[in-house]
Amino acid sequence: MNKPIYILGIESSCDDTSASVICNAKVLSNVVANQEVHSKYGGVVPELASRAHQQNIVPVVQQALEQASITKEQLSAIAFTKGPGLMGSLLVGTSFAKSLALGLQIPLIDVNHMQAHILAHFIEENSKIPEFPFICLTISGGHTQIVKVTNHFEMEILGQTIDDAVGEAFDKSAKILGLAYPGGPLIDKYAKLGNPKAYPFTKPKVGDLDFSFSGLKTGILYFIQKQQRINPNFIAENLNDICASIQYTIVEILMDKLKNAVKKTGIKRIAIAGGVSANSEIRARLLLAEKHWGWSTNIPKFEYTTDNAAMIAITGYLKFLNNNYADVSVTAQARLKVTE
């Protein structure tokens, strides 16, 4: 019987402090401390985020170990987010992981946050594990890209946003409508009650596999301003239809690019990753694509889509199997491509 491999994953790239323990590919705990402080500012304040990480990291790690019913001495290795992300936030997780690994004299594993979003699909609990090669649409507040995944650590960016990320498009549109931050989930909620064809918004014209959302945001802003001049209560009276139309347009853009990627590569295995993949319309459209175009689609469990440490831990586990460890001199990197 092989000895179980316990990996502690630590995620601190943005505003959530998270720790997770996995045994082989099975999640034993996945604790996330959300930072409420940012909602009143309408976005993440980096200085406040790093301070909150410092307060949260010890209790979160402690809780993750307790929930997993193991002691820190049983850990095989510690995996942490090296980047990309907010530098102050990354430094908290990096310093903590280094110190703990040194103290316990166990391997340290650095994890690329973007790769981890994709590799979250290999957590045992997911209903199915993608087969290689597959195409992954990674969509979050900071990133929008289509990645060809040949094996666990061989990835190629086929297309990406040339300006804003899709999560930002959702949140900024919500802000224009006077909705609270983060606004993406609220647009999703109201869209379910509205008519997606009520207000046609123009889709940006960029390359086959690249994305652009800045023009769409501007178009939505001008449209709302124009309507409010005619009727000051326009948003309140038509909120569901506006949200449904915005969501429909954004999801159409994503699906168009995925279709192009399938056409170009001939790969019909599709996965989604990142916080925006929690969106109900995207999930519904992907399931339709399975029926209509014969795609095989992989949609991760809801809790593994947003930033969480289980995805860091599973990536750490896969790297551990390859003896791919980090040196203690490793440093956090605010900018990091999925291929690095």
Automatic annotation (TrEMBL):
Fe cation binds at residues 113, 117, 307. It comes from the Bacteria. Pfam families: TsaD. GO terms for molecular function: iron ion binding; tRNA N(6)-L-threonylcarbamoyladenine synthase activity. Substrate binds at residues 138-142, 171, 184, 188, 279. GO terms for cellular component: cytoplasm. Binds 1 Fe(2+) ion per subunit. Its cofactor is Fe(2+). Keywords: Acyltransferase, Cytoplasm, Iron, Metal-binding, Transferase, tRNA processing. GO terms for biological process: tRNA threonylcarbamoyladenosine modification. HAMAP family: TsaD (MF_01445). Belongs to the KAE1 / TsaD family. This is tRNA N6-adenosine threonylcarbamoyltransferase. It comes from Polaribacter reichenbachii. The gene is tsaD.
